[in-house]
Amino acid sequence: MQIKMALAGNPNAGKTTLFNELTGARQHVGNYPGITVDHKEGCLLHGEYKITMTDLPGTYSMTAYSVEELVTRDYLVNERPHVVINIVDASNLERNLYLSCQLIELGVPLVIALNMMDVAHARGIEIKTKQLEKLLQVPVVPIVARSGEGTEQLLETCIEVAAVKSPWAPRDISYGEDLDTTLTALVEKIADNSFLTSSYPSRYCAIKYLENDDQILEKGRLESPLIAKELEEIVESASKHTLKTLDVYPEALIADHRYGYIKSILRQGVLTHKFDTDRLYTSDKIDKVLTNRLIGPAFMLFILFALYKFTFSWSEIPVAALENVFSWIADFTDSTLPDGMFKSMIISGVIDGVGGVLGFVPLIMFMFFGIAILEDSGYLARVAFMMDRIFRIFGLHGSSVMPFIVSGGIAGGCAVPGVMATRTLRSPKERMATLLTVPFMNCGAKIPVLALLIGAFFGEHKARYMFLFTLLAWVVALFAAKLFRSTVLRGAPTPFVMELPPYRFPTMRGLLIHTWERTYQYIKKAGTVILGISILLWALMTFPGLPEDKASLFEQERTAISEGVSEAISSQLRSNSELSPEAEVLAAQLLAIDNKEKEATLRNSIAGQIGTSFETVTQYAGFDWRTNIALIGGFAAKEVIVSTLGTAYSMGEVEAEEPESLGVRLQKDQNWNKVVAVSALVFIMFYAPCFVTVVCIAKESSWKWAFFSMTFNTIFAFLMAVAVYQVGTFFHLVT
Ligand code: GDP
Ligand code: MG
């Protein structure tokens, strides 16, 4: 038998943890609101039952205020799951039951999973489950989702509820005499006309009308303009009445009564505190210090710096080791494959391209591990909380902070989930401003570029520069937001309340799963998207090759040098044996010609021609034609920048005894220096978002905005790079 179950609950109540526990999936568990916006599905078998489980986004309520609320509500009324598991945080019962109230009113077949019993217990909160069950008339099962305690019992209960196959049974809550009278009038009209009743119970629909729920009002007008108008008139006069008599809107009254209902239940012997209730919990005590106006931000910056220090110092050895592995693979391929196009593609396209990206896996892993600690412990939510104060100054909303952090605000996120996470913003203008500025953060794909250039040019102070470039990203993003909010996206700010989840000690398993999830995404991308782009770019950098006449010129030079050389020396060259001094000179000359030919070939390639033609503009920012090729590649995906630089600079390489790393090659190149490095970094950090992000922005808003984001960012980044390069070069000249 098939059973459809859905998980609903407040953010941080443990939905995803339970979902993973039951389905064995590894969905992302987050310690802050706004991580799950789409619902996730999973399957499990339990005896003869095949259960599909849906993890709905976290919501406090079911009004049409935010996307999560709409997603949850629409899912429930459209999909009609056989059982809805309402996860309730036992340590925060009163607020969590607010949603339960609404589920009860909607009448879904409900089971309450009383989660975090361990936390409640530790805080001395005692809950009489049976009593709660009796008063709510809903089965209540205490669980600890994190350890799996009670989940078996929960499943059993859910199956029992599903087996009854009872239709939806909405239950009424009283909203006081005034509103109840209005509700009765509304219900009558709704029921008589079967108005929207295919989706919603009539009283529920009536309440939504009283709450002024945008979505329902709109649906109503579509269903029957006439009845909708009558209903709206009834509501209108009711709100006039409550405003006059109580000075509140019906919505507020409804919320008051719901809380009242909950309070009365909890007072009837359900909830007892063993300890003094106004004692400060440990979390609050910690927060007194960590979110203090002065100490808080200082500590935050310290943590950030420590994260980079940790990442760079610990990853140094594994990164170098991995680099060796890839250069060994390249050497091995070089000596086994026959010369030709195929070999060139494998080495320059595949190994250099993918290897260049994979080489940073240890660094990325350490960084993700650090972030996982911040996230799982609950500290990241505090970062959001503190940033909120700053965000308001720049016309952004508190809910914008998480998208920024998800996009790589600390380091190594991705703008795609960041763009999605902006769905939690209710005001379209604040949302647009956030959407347009999150790509400025240093996502995981930019980290290798940062690491490469910082390592090559500012090697002594890696963590310090990483820290500075992170701050720069924030400053630029905030000022850009301010610019948008005072021009194209002008509008009033909307209020924001942030709730801080309690600090939790991260589990090793959780940390490892988080680290691995994200690292795996990175590796997967390298093996798929990046591989494809690398090969494409290799082709662009290889074809059409040198024209006959030019190629033969090089050939002539070679024969000219080799002529008159004794047989002994040429055989030395062929056999790769120990070279005599004369042979060495000859070898060097031949190699110089080879390199010139390679460079000429690259310059003549499609990519080379494009890169060269851009030089007329990019010279003002200090970028040569090879760098241009890499930057153009970066439009597709930022990871490609490192690998393309690698290919471009290895193709025209000047011989060295040992194979050199790309960093060293850049250091030695005459077109590169510290100023160019900073100019390039600035450009890379702020120019057009990668292709996937652009598509995502278009989907979340419109192609018009996506296009705006590409052009605005590129022009803006270029101007910044030019400024850096010109000012930097100028001061270099005078000193
Ligand atoms: P969601 O927002 O409802 O999906 O909540 P999550 O599943 O992301 O959980 C939020 C946090 O609560 C995570 O850090 C979990 O590890 C933690 N958590 C979940 N269930 C329990 C529990 O039963 N006990 C404790 N102590 N922590 C839990
Ligand atoms: Mg979740």
Question: What report would you give on this structure?
Answer:
The structure is a single chain. The protein has 735 residues and is mainly alpha-helical. The protein folds into 5 domains: 2-164, Rossmann fold, CATH 3.40.50.300; 177-274, Helix Hairpins; 295-335 and 352-486, no CATH class; 509-544 and 595-730, no CATH class; 545-594, no CATH class. Helices cover 66% and strands 6% of the residues. The chain contains 32 helices and 8 strands. The protein has helices at residues 15-23, 67-79, 93-106, 117-122, 129-136, 151-164, 176-192, 202-210, 214-223, 225-246, 250-270, 282-290, 295-336, 341-358, 361-377, 379-393, 401-409, 415-421, 428-437, 446-457, 462-486, 508-542, 548-562, 567-575, 581-604, 606-618, 625-633, 639-651, 662-668, 674-686, 691-700, 703-734; strands at 2-9, 40-46, 49-55, 83-89, 110-115, 125-127, 140-142, 271-273. The strands form 2 sheets. The chain has a 6-stranded mixed beta sheet, with helices on both faces. A two-stranded antiparallel ribbon has the order 6-8. Strand 2 (40-46) and strand 3 form a beta hairpin. Helix 14 (341-358) packs antiparallel against helix 22. The longest helix has 42 residues, at 295-336. Residues 31-35 and 652-657 have low confidence and may be disordered. Guanosine-5'-diphosphate (GDP) is lined by residues 9, 11-17, 29-31, 36, 58, 115-116, 118-119, 144-146, 376, 504, 510.
